[in-house]
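quick one, 107 residues, struct below
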Amino acid sequence: MTYVVTESCIKCKYTDCVDVCPVDCFREGPNFLVIDPDECIDCTLCVAECPVEAIYAEDDLPADQMQFTAINAALSKKWLAIVERKDPLPEADEWAKVKGKEDKLER
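---
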């Protein structure tokens, strides 16, 4: 099992999760983070750190977020690792609770 970053992260990109990851499995895109499933060790540390509750265990994904397993796997092969916390995107607080924003994901 791996952990998956879901829609809530889109246009927010809080990086609190990056700070606690012991294996540097996060990858950074323009407006989203993903977890590399080949690197994730299922430690659960990132889940509690995410202020928008965007990270789930693969087995616990809500039904409307299942596609993010494949999205994380695919984008983790394209994007570079992020190993240090950064400021969230400027409009993160405005986008934090917005639903239905998968079409805003910049790949």
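Residues 68-76 form the longest helix (9 residues).
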